[in-house]
Design brief:
This protein has about 350 residues and is an alpha+beta fold. The chain has ten helices and eight strands. It has helices at about 10-15, 20-35, 115-130, 145-175, 175-180, 185-200, 205-220, 220-235, 240-270, 280-340; strands spanning about 1-10, 35-45, 45-50, 70, 75-80, 85-90, 95-100, 100-105.
């Protein structure tokens, strides 16, 4: 990975005393050993580059760097010995760059922890030992970079899924309040999804995140059944508290039928019985855990949230009606006074 390199150290104080231009000395050394194109030579329709460089015998030994001649500002020519000190060191065989900066790539296979946890450990060690002046930075690349980008895309997809589900329910319910009540079933799935993944020894991955996105459109079904049935009972003149109490037992069978059928369908993949199923297993486990807890908690939480939001809506409507009535009375009082003055 490394190869020998000649390290040159310049005595700047002596160079200033001898009135030597550092740029001229650098150009001389580069031309002596590396060569420099000085022009072209044309012959019989072919063009050849003219490259000026020292003979091979005069640049084959690192010690011969000191024999390089350099001109001072006054026109004298002196040897570089004394001005330059040479030493043999090691240099990288290839200089790699990332975003136009010198970079070094460190790769590792993690065992016992997730790649995300491995990135966090690397960042902690880097902040612990790296200089604090900002000259060095750490950036995940390769699979780690792809994983980070994938989770960013998944988070964006999750947000858009929630917004789309809310918009569809707002159109169907013709209300902005009841869809918000239904959306309260989404936080109820997180305990089951993350808890079952932890019990199964699985980690948060792209596939498990896809299962969570899938749950956004699945777990709201039970809440939709409850809220829609409550609205139907209220439309028939039933009191809202009585409608909430009757909706749970009457819609329990439909909720259990849809939930159990989904759980049974996802169970074979969650058990990992087929070859290659370990790739899809986190998604199915997340779906089963989230659907299980959301179903149990939806029957208890959504009716309570429905009553709370409906009471708030009644209070808001009452305040608005009182304000409108106050404005009408005030406007009517002004018109009466105006009529009295005219009379």
């Amino acid at each position: 990975m490394n190869k020998p390199r000649i390290n040159l150290t310049l005595n700047r104080a002596l160079a200033d005393d001898l009135n030597i231009n550092i740029r001229d000395l650098s150009d001389e050394l580069l031309t002596w050993f590396g060569g420099d194109n000085q022009g072209t030579f044309n012959d019989s329709g072919y063009r050849y580059n003219i490259r000026l460089r020292a003979e091979s015998s005069k640049r084959s030994d690192p010690a011969k760097v000191l024999n390089t001649l350099v001109s001072t500002m006054s026109g004298k020519t002196i040897r570089a010995e004394g001005l330059v000190t040479s030493s043999i060191g090691m240099a990288p065989n290839v200089i790699k760059r990332y975003n136009r900066q010198h970079s070094i790539t460190i790769g590792a296979n993690v065992e016992g922890i997730s790649p995300g946890e491995g990135i966090k450990l690397m960042e902690q060690e880097f902040r612990k030992y790296a200089p604090q002046d900002g000259t060095y930075s750490i950036v995940p690349t390769g699979d780690s970079e792809n994983m980070k980008e994938s989770f960013g895309y998944m988070m964006t997809a999750l947000i858009f899924a929630i917004i789309l589900v809310y918009m569809v329910m707002a159109i169907q319910f013709e209300s902005f309040l009841h869809p918000f009540t239904v959306m309260f079933s989404l936080p109820l799935m997180t305990a089951g999804s993350f808890g079952l993944l932890a019990l199964g020894g699985l980690r948060i991955s792209v596939m498990s995140f896809m299962g969570i996105i899938l749950l956004v459109g699945v777990v709201v079904n039970n809440a939709i059944l409850l809220v829609d049935f409550i609205n139907q009972l209220r439309a028939k003149g039933v009191d809202k508290v009585e409608a909430v109490l009757r909706s749970g037992p009457l819609r329990l069978r439909a909720i259990l039928m849809t939930t159990v059928s989904t759980l049974v369908g996802a169970l074979p993949v969650a058990l990992g019985l087929s070859s290659g199923s370990e790739t899809r297993q986190p998604m199915s486990v997340a779906v089963i855990g989230g659907l299980f807890t959301s179903t149990l908690l939806t029957l208890l939480v959504i009716p309570v949230v429905y009553l709370v939001f409906d009471n708030w809506a009644d209070l808001a409507r009452a305040k608005i009606n009182r304000y409108r009535a106050y404005r009408r009375l005030k406007d009517s009082g002004r018109s009466l006074k105006r009529d009295d003055r005219v009379a």
